[in-house]
Design a protein that fits this description.
Length: about 130
């Protein structure tokens, strides 16, 4: 399966993810949905701060030029929101999945789909 089909079928196709990108730990984009205009520089900065709640709480998460307020996270996950939209980000062994949702999608729905794909990628070494 191509990286683009993971974005199209496993994320966007579920109807609980509005936009998504899969990239490497260096921020280079492997696959993306058309509306998400994330840059490799934004992704790299975000990836470098996964697990650093102090930096994320102060600076937020910038994706596609939009700043999201950091809500919570772990050493593998970031949760952030802006008004009626938000992002759920999961770092795997070699990749980072960034999923964005908008109302009426609930944050938990997006999180479940994102982490299910992330867990699968970890299980196959990605």
């Amino acid at each position: 399966m191509s990286w683009q089909s993971y974005v199209d079928d496993q994320l966007i196709g579920t109807k609980v993810v509005s936009d998504a990108v899969i990239c490497g730990h260096d921020g280079n984009i492997w696959a993306t949905s058309p509306k998400l205009k994330a840059t490799p520089q934004e992704l790299k900065k975000m990836i470098d701060n996964i697990g650093n709640a102090d930096v994320l709480a102060t600076n937020g998460v910038v994706l596609g030029g939009i700043k999201y307020m950091y809500l919570s996270g772990t050493d593998k996950v970031i949760r952030a929101k802006k008004e009626k939209a938000g992002v759920h980000i999961m770092k795997t062994v070699q990749a980072v999945i960034v999923a964005r949702y908008e109302e009426p999608i609930m944050p938990e729905q997006c999180a479940t789909v994102t982490e299910k794909l992330g867990d699968y990628l970890v299980s196959v070494g990605y």
